[in-house]
Amino acid sequence: MRIHSPKLFAVVLLASVVSGCGSIQAPDAVKGSGKEGSTEGACVRLDPGLNWPAGVREHLQKVIEAHSACIGTVRDGEASVAIFDWDNTVVKNDIGYATNFWMLRNDKILQPENQDWKTTDRYLTDAAAVALSAACGTDIPAGEPLPTSKDQDCADEILAILNDTTRSGEAAFAGFDSRRLTGAYSWGTTLSAGYTAEELAFFGGEAKKQNLAAPEGEMQTVGTQEVDGYIRIYPQMKDLITVLQAHGVETWVVSASPEPVVKVWSQEVGIRADHVVGVRSVYQDGVQTTHLKGCGGVPDGDDSVMTYIDGKRCWANQEIFGIQGLAAFEQAPADRRQFLAAGDSVTDVTFVGDATAARIAVNRNKAELMCHAYDDVDGAWVVVPMFIDPAPRREEPYACSTTAYTNPDGIPGPVKRPDGTVIPDQADTIF
Predict the structure, then answer these.
(1) What is the torsional sign of CA 315, 320, 326, 327?
(2) What whole-number distance in Å separates Cα of residue 386 and Cα of residue 344?
(3) What secondary structure does DSSP assign to 358-403, as a single string?
(4) What count of other Cβ atoms lies within 10 Å of the Cβ of residue 286?
(5) Nearest CA to 250 among 403, 127, 428, 82?
(6) Burial of 295 by CB count in 10 Å (0-12 exposed, 13-18 middle, 19+ buried)?
(7) Which of 33, 36, 298, 341 has its CA 20 to 30 A from that of 52?
(8) Vertex 254 angle, CA 386 and 109, to 5°
């Protein structure tokens, strides 16, 4: 395991000077006791008792101290910003899916309007709608709960479509910009249409209690399928967020899970609900509809953008930095970007890549993200394995030069650096 450190620290030092953050003090210059892993003194440090790959904790500490209100390296007293994805970045496993699973096990999915599954998502294919109607039937009136705790056929079809295909293998979603949205994630949100945000938060809270109480590694049965049945907060990420906050850094979550659910979880690491951006739905008379709120000038109900790849950048720029209109889809100037970001998937590659000083890639073998992280063109990328049940080493190199990039039409292509050059294939070395 290694960190790409030699050029990384030089870039951090340069970035702090360019941004007007002042000089970086050495660790022994931290105000107060500076005791590692403690809250003593004015400026706490990352806990040395938590396992990071060699050199990573020390590097992250330097980056924090270069952007610290506590030490005084931020300019004009302005707060620095750090942004985290949530699922499989701050926690092991996925809280959006966990909530879907809880709703299926507790008969909370409602029969769609006119008993027509096409009304649930504009990108749902005819094949998927037919499959859902066949599996879930029309005996239950529209707006009433489907008996998915007992109806295994219905539950299994919903699970299959949450994984992008019908049980017969037909595509479940089509027609969206794959850099701004993905059908399965948007549909996973619309499965809670018909409920208030408070009701969805309750469902998320019940799923949270179940998944935190379950033994590590636990699986659960939904329909006839075995799916993840536990979630854990990564201690390393919780500690990182705590230390960032102690240094005056504004910490945010930008997630592709439904926002009311993410807000239920974010308190576990001390991130306030008003610092959470998740998938945002359109509400009518206080009740969630099947439509999404827009970003970057895209109107509400257009359903063409969510917190996904370039859409995550848009939502981060709009909600955190106040950038409006089409400009929210573009990379902002360095002084209006997060200095640190963390993610685990292609979902996160754009906003993590926007971070000016530290870009943490949690290795789940997601090609586009890992191509950038291993290429590490400017020294700002840090690769870490999953802290619980890490993914095995990928035996074949990531196909960065040919098929690792997701184009808007969904057709794969080569991954390119900011200067337009193609990233060569990358070996998996940190796992």
Answers:
(1) negative
(2) 9
(3) EEEEEES--HHHHHHHHH-TTS-EEEEE-SSSPPPPPSSPB-TTTT
(4) 9
(5) 82
(6) buried
(7) 33
(8) 90
Q: Check: CB of residue 342 under 8 Å from CB of residue 89.
A: yes
> Which segments of 78-223 are extended strands (E)?
81-84, 91-92, 219-222
Residue whose tokens read 């910009």: 177
Instruction: To the nearest 10°, report the CA torsion of 13, 14, 15, 16.
Output: 50
φ, ψ at 333 (rounded to 5°): -55, 155
Whether the CB-CB separation of 369 and 345 falls below 8 Å is answered with yes
Q: Is 426 within 8 Å of 400 (Cβ atoms)?
A: yes
φ and ψ at residue 384, rounded to 5 degrees: -130, 150
Side-chain-side CA neighbours of 276 within 13 Å: the count stands at 23
> What letter does residue 92 receive in the DSSP assignment?
E
Cα–Cα distance, 184 to 67 (Å, whole number): 37
In sequence order, the 6+-apart residues with CB closer than 8 A to the CB of 114 are 142
Tell me the sheet residues that pair with 74: none
Closest CA to 177 of 5, 304, 326: 304
Residue whose pair of structure tokens reads 């399928």 in the numeric block: 225
121 touches 192 (CB < 8 A):
no
d(CA 260, CA 219): 24
209-263: pLDDT as tens digits: 999 999 999 999 999 999 999 999 999 999 999 999 999 999 999 999 999 999 9
Residues of the chain short of pLDDT 70, as ranges, are 1-42, 75, 77
pLDDT digits (tens, 9 = 90+) for 158-177: 999 999 999 999 999 999 99
Query: Residue 253 in contact with residue 267, Cβ under 8 Å?
Result: no
pTM, rounded to two decimals:
0.90
Within a 13 Å sphere around the CA of 105, how many CA atoms are in the beta-carbon half?
A: 18
